[in-house]
Amino acid sequence: MTALVTGGAGYIGSHMALALLERGEDVVILDNLTTGVRDLVPDKAQFVQGDVGDARLVRQLIAEHEVDSVLHFAGSTVVPDSVSDPLRYYANNTCNSRTLIEACIQGGVKHFIFSSTAAVYGATEAEMIDENAPKIPANPYGRSKLMTEWMLQDAASATSLKYIALRYFNVAGADPLGRTGQSTPRATHLIKRACQTALGRLPYLGIFGVDFATPDGTGVRDYIHVSDLVAAHALALDHLRAGGESGAFNCGYGHGFSVRQVIGAVEQASGHKLAVKELPRRPGDPPAVVADPGKLKGRLGWTPRYDALDQIVRHALEWESRVDAR
Ligand code: UD1
Q1: pLDDT at 325 over 70
Q2: What order do you get walking across the sheet with 220-221 strand by strand?
Q3: Which of 128, 167, 187, 240 is deepest in the core (most CB within 10 A)?
Q4: Which residue's CA is the closest to the ligand 1 atom numbered 2?
């Protein structure tokens, strides 16, 4: 039995590949290296450079390696880019996923774990978002992922494919052993940028909006350590392999931190003040996005190990100080 990890040279996919290998699984990574980094591919994984939209290649890999499970991380993730170039996002995230799902069904793959996003919910008034909240994505990125969830739901009803969609809140941090981390060039994530600022690689950190209806006026998000997220994937895979039902699960801790609190944590970890600049809100940014993780804990038995902002920031900063300046 082999697990196919699409996007396994990327930030979250490379952490997943390491975790699967540690569990003794055979791992094949398919990544086109547009944002992935070849050096992040673990030595013991088999690496194939190619596209998830290449049906022939995917069918060949499934047959050749007797793939029973696919973990689909490959995709585009920058919300503002999805607004300026929506068709690229629909092509890469939605159309290529359709091709991949079809090839999986044709190849007899039974289990499919999909990287979805909190962006499927859009703006919400709820203090904590549960899986039944309305899905009204505010941008093409969220819509491109929600459409893939719908395809999986419909395909699972019509075939023997079972799936779990994991809706990520704000993924951050890095492998506690320092083997991999966020290496995407020009990353837009807050914690990554704050660490780059702390290391003098950015002249200042822009704070996008200080007039939100939040305790300190800055945006609040539920930051989840990448290793806890990967653990959720492993549980989801075990659940499907044990005959469990398809479905969608939120991945977050259930509490949020503001941009200013994140800056404080990075200042604490790095030992010096960050240069910051208060800027207007980024278009489409909701004030607060916090998960209700009750379903993930209750149904899959997920127990977070790294639910502490200072630890997330420390791991991110350790990784950032190791990678080349970008
Ligand atoms: C969004 C998506 C998420 C996606 C992620 C990656 C939603 C609800 N979530 O998260 O699914 O995976 O993008 O692109 O759409 N901020 C600053 N300065 C910065 C960077 C960010 O102040 O330099 C602020 C943002 O305004 C926000 C918070 O920090 O309040 C987090 O931003 P970011 O890390 O970009 O993630 P989201 O936009 O929350």
Answers
A1: no
A2: 257-258, 220-221, 288-289
A3: 167
A4: 119
Give me the residues paired with residue 231 across strands.
none
Q: Which amino acid is at 179?
A: R
Coil, helix or strand for 49?
strand
* Same-domain status, 160 and 120: yes
Q: What's the predicted TM-score (pTM) here?
A: 0.97
Asked if the structure places residue 180 within a domain, the reply is no
Ligand 1 atom 1, closest CA:
79
Quick: pLDDT tens for 256-314.
999 999 999 999 999 999 999 999 998 778 899 999 999 999 999 999 999 999 999 99
User: For residue 178, is it within any domain?
Assistant: no
Indicate if 212 and 146 belong to the same structural domain.
Answer: no
* Catalytic one of 89, 90, 141, 168: 141
Query: Coil, strand or helix: which one is 212?
Result: coil
pLDDT digits (tens, 9 = 90+) for 34-83: 999 999 999 999 999 999 999 999 999 999 999 999 999 999 999 889 99
Both 10 and 108 in one domain: the answer is yes
**141 in active site:** yes
The closest residue, in CA terms, to atom 3 on ligand 1 is: 119
Mark whether 143 and 194 lie in a shared domain.
Answer: no
Asked if residue 195 has its Cβ within 6 Å of ligand 1, the reply is no
Residues in contact with 265: Cβ distance below 8 Å, sequence separation at least 6, in sequence order? 257, 309, 310, 312, 313
Pair 116, 250: CB distance under 8 Å: no
Asked if 19 contacts 230 with a C-beta cutoff of 8 angstroms, the reply is yes
